[in-house]
Design a protein that fits this description.
CATH architecture of the largest domain: Up-down Bundle
Strand content: under 5%
Order of helices and strands: HHHHHHHHHHHHHHHHHH
Low-confidence stretches: 402-410
Structural class: mainly alpha
Length: about 400
């Protein structure tokens, strides 16, 4: 009751009080998702709690006192784990090359749609929104696809291919096109960062090649030491710091840390992944999503519901339609033959939220996007996470029911 009373006085909540409400939201979100039979992902529930707790609603929680720093660490951990989940093989081969081309077409289509409906907006604003509209939330989709048991099927492999490109390409585009530099200079800086990341990645690899270091790592891997986890967190912060020094978004550094981590874990330290998931999904990542929800001005969203709906439809058209057309008309050796699977793939590919949040944060910080547009765009991203996998699941359910109905006749 004291917490509620303190909130009613108009005094900004302390960091501890804010973290209490965030922790409560993080604990309730998966329970709520389970009660709703998984139809509402806990990410959407976390955002909803953030909207309710934030300054635009109850104002029971804020970002002062280091809460915003924990949120940024949560963003870094989210993309570190996304980089770890990314199999580089998915980016190559004919299906991978097709996914790259499809993403480029999606970006051009998104920019074209925005040029038609928001012709008076600045070019950089349209670029920022277009990048956000072409992302795919692979980290959010993986549990959903696994739960449906299609990850090892052709549909699951297609989701992984388009999802991998849909995560990596917007991050690169954001670093180049939303930079304060001109495009050639931004490309040079990006290449320098990649070179620095490669050099930094060689250090733990060389250390692991030394038998003495490997034994020390194994001996100090548990208990109060947890040395492998500490090294991974150090790697994450080093690359996020390097990205910041290069005036790039820290998301790029976190993603690069995840790619490096994948090669290190493959070398014989799989237990680190479980520990990082515990830290990330148990603490830091929920903080990031709740704090992201606090930034959504629900009043601005509901004041222009047509803009909200238009963003959702535009994301479906810009990202989902090119994916569907490529599977239907562009042969790449692994095309999905069933119409329902192509529809499911298009819906999954158009599901985006984490990168939308990251892009809006960068764009608002650089003055390229208003807070109202950012709130509506994030709300549209949350809507895609809520609706598109649900529709894909219903499509699969109807197909299964039809197969069961006609099975006795065969």
């Amino acid at each position: 009751m004291r917490l509620l009373a303190a909130a009613d006085t108009g005094v900004p909540p302390s960091a501890i009080v804010s973290l209490f409400w965030i922790a409560l939201a993080a604990a309730l979100a998966p329970i709520g998702s389970r009660l709703l039979r998984g139809y509402v992902p806990d990410v959407v529930i976390l955002l909803g709690f953030g909207i309710a707790l934030g300054p635009h609603a109850l104002a029971w929680a804020g970002t002062d006192g280091g809460v915003d720093l924990l949120s940024e660490l949560g963003l870094g951990m989210l993309f570190l784990l996304a980089g770890y989940e990314l199999d580089p093989k998915l980016l190559g081969g004919k299906p991978g090359r097709t996914a790259w081309v499809v993403w480029a077409v999606s970006l051009l289509l998104a920019f074209g749609l925005l040029a038609l409906v928001a012709w008076d907006a600045a070019v950089t604003t349209r670029v920022a929104v277009a990048i956000a509209m072409t992302s795919t939330a692979l980290g959010t989709l993986l549990p959903i696809v696994k739960q449906q048991g299609v990850l090892e099927q052709p549909l699951g492999r297609a989701v992984l291919a388009h999802g991998a490109v849909g995560e990596l390409a917007p991050i690169v585009a954001m670093s180049v096109l939303l930079s304060s530099r001109n495009v050639p200079a931004a490309v040079v800086v990006l290449l320098l960062f990649l070179l620095a990341a490669a050099i930094i990645g060689m250090v733990p690899r060389r250390l692991l090649d030394r038998p003495g270091f490997g034994r020390a790592l194994a001996q100090l891997g548990g208990g109060t030491s947890q040395l492998p986890v500490r090294f991974v967190l150090l790697l994450l912060l080093v690359l996020m710091s390097v990205a910041e020094v290069f005036d790039l978004d820290v998301v790029l550094g976190a993603f690069a840390a995840g790619l490096i981590l994948r090669t290190l874990i493959a070398a014989g330290h799989p237990q680190v992944h479980a520990s990082l998931e515990t830290i990330g999904f148990g603490m830091l990542i929920p903080i990031f999503f709740v704090v992201s929800g606090m930034g959504i001005d629900i009043g601005a969203v509901t004041a222009e519901p047509l803009l909200w709906v238009s963003f959702v439809v535009s994301i479906a058209l810009a990202r989902g339609l090119p994916v569907w057309l490529s599977e239907r008309f562009v042969p790449h050796g692994a095309n999905l033959e069933r119409p329902r699977e192509r529809a499911q793939l298009a819906l999954y590919a158009a599901t985006g939220l984490p990168i939308i949040v990251a892009v809006t944060q960068v764009a608002t910080g650089a003055g390229l996007m208003s807070e109202e547009i950012a709130s509506t765009l994030v709300a549209a991203g949350a809507t895609t996470v809520l609706l598109f996998p649900l529709i894909a699941r219903l499509i699969a359910g109807r197909a299964d029911e039809s197969a069961a109905e006609f099975a006795p006749r065969l």
